[in-house]
Amino acid sequence: MTRDLADRRGVETEVYGAAEDSRLLAEAAVEAVEPGWTVLDCGTGSGYVGDRLAETRARVIASDLNPHACERARDRGLEAVRGDLLAPFRPGVFDAVAFNPPYLPTDPENEWDDWMEVALSGGESGRAVIEPFLDSVSCALAPGGIVLLLVSSLTGFETLLEYAENRGFEASVVAEESFPFETLSVLRLVR
Amino acid sequence: MKESLMEIVCCPIDKADLELDVEERDGEEIVSGTLTCTECGEVYPIEDGIPNLLPPDMREDATA
């Protein structure tokens, strides 16, 4: 995945397409999820992770802030909900929540104000969306429920790990892949 | 959306139960209708099978 937001522009401005990060998360999630579970693909984007999760015969809910992303998820046959992170979900309903968050650190002077930016930009720190997610996700988890979170080294792996642990999560790395400019990891978080 | 989604979703503002009103149904799928919060009375639309559970201040997003 490239670090430069500008490189992502041009072809697609409405929905973030599946990339290396989506594939790494999907593989780890498929491995972790069991049939009969209720699973949330939070920030589903193109619906790729949700689609892969559906292979496990879990019930998959796909949510996104972006209406175009919700439409694509629904076109894939997923149950789509438009919403902000965990806000529209009842406490204790999910056995697993998978999240490939917007995580690229972005210069506020250099933002473009379209859906692709919403899908990619994690604010100046890269953690502007991940932190509120970690603040609210445990409430939505069923007892024993897990979170599968994609983390990039660009976002500050250690800082994020500490943030998750301070919110009562035990974290382990279940997948990892290195690219020239970043290392992508999938964190498995349990309470 | 399927009617069974009601077991999973709630009002994004106060986490209260929602009440479903169906306008159009296609088999098991609810194509259009509304979800109304039983606590604060906020009404959330269901359009093209997708419930929009954004709080009202986020619903009219300026992003194209």
Secondary-structure blueprint:
The complex is a heterodimer of chains A (about 190) and B (about 60).
Chain A: H1 20-32, E1 38-42, H2 48-54, E2 59-64, H3 67-75, E3 79-82, E4 94-99, H4 115-120, H5 130-140, E5 141-152, H6 157-166, E6 170-178, E7 183-190
Parallel strand pairs in A: 1-2, 1-4, 2-3, 4-5
Antiparallel strand pairs in A: 5-7, 6-7
Helix pairs in contact in A: 1-2
Chain B: E1 18-26, E2 29-37, E3 43-47, E4 50-51, H1 56-59
Antiparallel strand pairs in B: 1-2, 2-3, 3-4
Organism (chain B): Halalkalicoccus paucihalophilus
Protein name (chain B): Trm112p-like protein
Organism (chain A): Halalkalicoccus paucihalophilus
Pattern of helices and strands of chain B: EEEEH
The amount of helix of chain A comes to 25-40%
Radius of gyration of chain B over alpha carbons? 12 Å
> What structural class do you assign from the helix and strand content of chain A?
alpha/beta
Structural class of chain B: mainly beta
Tell me the distance between the termini of chain B.
24 Å
CATH class of chain A: Alpha Beta
Unreliable runs of chain A = none
> What is the number of E strands of chain A?
7
Count structural domains of chain A: 1
SS strand fraction of chain B? 35-45%
Query: Largest sheet of chain A, if any?
Result: 7 strands, mixed
Q: What low-confidence regions of chain B span 5 or more consecutive residues with pLDDT below 50?
A: none
- Oligomer status: heterodimer
- Total domain units of chain B: 1
Read across the widest sheet of chain B, the strand sequence of neighbours is: 1-2-3-4
| Average pLDDT score of chain B | 93
Which two chains share the most extensive interface?
A-B, 23 and 23 residues
* Shape summary of chain B: globular
- SSE pattern of chain A, N- to C-terminal: HEHEHEEHHEHEE
Number of strand segments of chain B = 4
EC number (chain A): 2.1.1.297
Domain Methyltransferase (chain A): 39-100
Keywords (chain A): Methyltransferase, S-adenosyl-L-methionine, Transferase
Pfam families (chain A): Methyltransf_25
